[in-house]
Give the backbone structure.
Amino acid sequence: MTFEFDRGIAVTARADGAFDADLDGGWVVGGGVNGGYLLAVIGNAVRQVLEPAGHVDPFSVSAHYLTASVPGPATVETRVVRQGGRFSTVAATLSQDVDGVATPRISALATYGDLDRAHDATTDAAAEALHLALPPPDLPPREECLRSSDAPEEVKKIAPLLDRFGTLLDPACAMWAVGRPSRRGVIQGWFKLADDRPLDPIALLMVVDALPPTTFDLGMPGWAPTLELTAHVRAKPAAGWAVVRHATRTVAGGLFEEDCDVWDSTGRLVAQSRQLALQPR
Amino acid sequence: MTFEFDRGIAVTARADGAFDADLDGGWVVGGGVNGGYLLAVIGNAVRQVLEPAGHVDPFSVSAHYLTASVPGPATVETRVVRQGGRFSTVAATLSQDVDGVATPRISALATYGDLDRAHDATTDAAAEALHLALPPPDLPPREECLRSSDAPEEVKKIAPLLDRFGTLLDPACAMWAVGRPSRRGVIQGWFKLADDRPLDPIALLMVVDALPPTTFDLGMPGWAPTLELTAHVRAKPAAGWAVVRHATRTVAGGLFEEDCDVWDSTGRLVAQSRQLALQPR
């Protein structure tokens, strides 16, 4: 395997049916390992479970984040809840050993199918006739955007995952980096992996949590731990730069929701997510 | 118990720790029992499990719908995944006996806490300072809206659940009822239960799936089975009429996402949900 994302999400099936994973320290951000990367690790294990059924693509993955993960060994246990004709559903738990005790980090439910079979001429023509395809936001050209991997070294020490990405942030939503947040609760930009690993449905599970939390744009820097994140993969992404937009509309009771939309280089919406996260203190 | 919603979601703990439920035929719509009602049944069982921990309110519930439920006996099995200081998470499965075989209908993950403790003066003041509180849509006065329980008898035969609600639909998004869908993919209106049972966090799990699917407004009448639905309860609702808004933005590959927001009578956002559902054929 050539790309660091594939090395990072690699899982090995054990004799007891569980999977061994090794969480890479390069995906650390703030108080833990990035939630999107962890979702892709789980998603990769589920894919291996459902490959014989031909259900290789995540359609909907819901994850409840229980405790913060740390770099190092992890186990993904899976249980097929239902295997069907068009979709299969698997329950999965990612755990880590803490002082000899298996400690659950994330519980997830994942419904998989075959995206190639979902998109046929009939359904796509029907959908197109409805004129309901969310267009990507207008972004400045990439040369006018801010490279997140150009962040100061003291930031990258806390967030080494910035070096995994080729993210180019829309300057209009990135002025929090110089102490002038727009206070709109929006962060958006161009996205690719730093080593140009092509995006695919499993990678999209990571992309939906790859940008800084929208709370940065609200003047609240700091770690915003995810309580729950559900990702829907809507189509296989075409090659090239993706466009990612995060927005929050409601901060209340110490929590905020963050919606993410991802479009591929052709402007097609390929993934959506919503997470409920804790407001930074 | 006086109200039909409470009778409908009642669960009885068995000696083995599972819960018995009896799915009420009054909540049937199209090809199955309403998904929001089923979510409230599961939510009620989870509440009983977490009551000793003081975590009585759903914050985030993710449900993957596996097979269509039918009226009659059902079992809710629960497993505490994590019990913590601020939140606890439970995995739950609702099953029904089909020819002697326990058949899973819904798998869910539920994170509960105490909404009274979430909203304190400090966090609410901080959130208010951010001016990020999604306002409810402008709706016509209730006397100008359309009572969904006034639907023709042949419709109510397919959807007896309409009689459970006092829903008053915004006419601008209800012209599909006379063959003139707006094609915006929006359905909104005023909401209360028919017997004036007050809304509470568990009832909100049902409210997020109580309106007709937005595909009606796209000129696609017919049942739109839910694949996945995640509901976030953001605050305890005040007494009185709620406002509910459903919108879809992307129909693709035979699926559409439907976002729902619920505001209480004071205009406060109290619940949000997103579901991924199958486009009606």
